[in-house]
Design goal:
- By secondary structure, the protein is mainly α.
- The chain has one domain.
- The chain is 52% helix and 0% strand.
- Helix 1 runs antiparallel to helix 6.
């Protein structure tokens, strides 16, 4: 077990989710997409400078999924909340979602006074 390899400790995904959410909100992109997703008639094509022959029936389908923008932002919030701010060893257990708990691996390491599983003679590297 190497805490820095834990997906919940690695910052990249959480920073990307935070940055994407902030950009969407700062630019009011969520509000724009929410509003346009509810407007399926000619208004959507008109907004983009299309006449009725150019618009066809395809324009509304591109914006249909944006009705779910609030749920998407909620998912980003929940991804951000999953991030562990400290390693298991620093916090005394896994802090995923803000609650500290000890997995079997951490309990085993502590019982043997090891820093990581690699110190144990029972440790095997899985090769795939």
């Amino acid at each position: 077990m190497v805490c820095c390899d834990c997906l919940f400790y690695k910052p990249e995904i959480f920073e990307a989710a935070r940055k994407l959410k902030n950009l969407i909100r700062e630019q009011d992109f969520d509000d724009f997409l929410r509003r346009i997703s509810g407007n399926y008639e000619w208004e959507v094509g008109k907004l983009f400078g299309m006449d009725k022959t150019q618009e066809g029936k395809n324009i509304p389908k591109y914006f249909e999924s944006f009705k779910q923008m609030p749920e998407f932002l909620n998912i980003l919030d929940n991804i951000i909340k999953l991030q562990c701010k400290k390693t298991c060893q620093e916090s005394g257990g896994c802090s995923i979602g803000g609650a500290i708990h000890q997995c079997d691996l951490l309990k085993c390491m502590k019982s043997k006074s090891y820093e990581g599983c690699w110190e144990c003679s029972e440790f095997e590297i899985a090769v795939s």
